């Protein structure tokens, strides 16, 4: 069974075209509305143009990280579903975690041995369910988030930022833990014990991200590219131990 042929079937590309087209149309609609109502808040057309160019430049850096991550998604689950998910959610890291969670529920690794049609379908389903949660949260609870934040963290902005940071750290530590607790793996060909390349990639990515954050304090442009650079550093380091 050619898994990639199924994942990249024309029907899925048709669905991706519809999804991406809707997002593009919405983006143009937002721009038109922004230009229409800009004078009501004291912004002229020249200021709007400058803001648009600044936003475009600022978005270029994070897009580099998305491109690097989406290549991994395409190799494992195909191009159409990658386009669909990123056009809706826009976070390659989130979608990769969802895809890996679906594969792990079937007892396999994303794109690894045993990852077949059923496992890919579960990964797709997990990604879609994960996206539904985001959309329902926006629709049902966005207008209540300030009240919830005040009850949990109070009105102290610093305390609320600490809570948010610790939640994020806990989430990603949970995702990374399985690789940290297995510092060594067995080579399937030679049966030799070797360093876990995933652990190396994780550590190298974390260290390089810390370095880029510090450099970003001095060179502001690096902030926009830090995640992409960190991902590339982790990939290169992990590849050395494959």
In a few lines, what is going on in this structure?
The protein is mostly helical. Helices cover 78% and strands 2% of the residues.
Characterise the protein shown here:
- With 242 residues, the chain is an all-alpha fold.
- The protein folds into two domains: 1-158, no CATH class; 176-242, no CATH class.
- 78% of the residues lie in helices and 2% in strands.
- It contains ten helices and two strands.
- The protein has helices at 3-7, 10-37, 45-77, 79-88, 92-105, 117-141, 145-153, 157-180, 197-218, 221-239; strands at 184-186, 193-195.
- The protein has a two-stranded antiparallel sheet with strand order 1-2.
- Helix 5 packs across helix 6 and helix 7 packs across helix 8.
Offer a few descriptive terms.
242 residues, mainly alpha, 10 helices, 2% strand, globular
3D shape: globular
Strand portion: under 5%
The total domain count is 2
Strand order of the largest sheet: 1-2
Structural class: mainly alpha
Q: Tell me the number of strands.
A: 2
Point out poorly predicted stretches: none
Give the SSE map.
Blueprint: H1 3-7, H2 10-37, H3 45-77, H4 79-88, H5 92-105, H6 117-141, H7 145-153, H8 157-180, E1 184-186, E2 193-195, H9 197-218, H10 221-239
Antiparallel strand pairs: 1-2
Helix pairs in contact: 2-4, 3-4, 3-5, 3-10, 5-6, 7-8, 9-10
């Amino acid at each position: 069974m050619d898994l990639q042929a199924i994942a990249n079937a024309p029907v899925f590309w048709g669905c991706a075209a519809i999804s991406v087209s809707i997002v593009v149309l919405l983006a143009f609609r937002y721009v038109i509305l922004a230009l229409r109502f800009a004078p009501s808040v004291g912004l002229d057309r020249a200021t709007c143009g400058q803001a648009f160019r600044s936003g475009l430049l600022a978005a270029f850096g994070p897009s580099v990280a998305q491109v690097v991550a989406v290549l991994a998604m395409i190799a494992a689950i195909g191009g159409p579903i990658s386009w669909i998910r990123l056009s809706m959610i826009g976070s390659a890291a989130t979608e990769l975690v969802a895809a890996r969670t679906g594969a792990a529920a079937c007892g396999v690794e994303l794109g690894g041995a045993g990852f077949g049609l059923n496992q890919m379908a579960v990964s797709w389903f997990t990604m879609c369910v994960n996206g539904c949660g985001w959309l329902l949260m926006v629709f049902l609870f966005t207008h209540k988030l300030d009240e919830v934040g005040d009850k949990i963290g109070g009105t102290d902005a610093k305390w609320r930022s600490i809570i948010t940071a610790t939640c994020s750290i806990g989430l990603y530590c949970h995702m990374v833990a399985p690789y940290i607790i297995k510092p060594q793996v067995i080579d399937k060909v030679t049966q030799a014990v070797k360093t876990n390349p995933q652990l190396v990639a994780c550590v190298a990515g974390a260290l390089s991200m810390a370095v880029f954050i510090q450099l970003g304090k001095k060179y502001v442009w690096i902030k926009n590219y830090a995640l992409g650079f960190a991902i590339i550093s982790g990939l290169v380091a992990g590849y050395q131990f494959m």
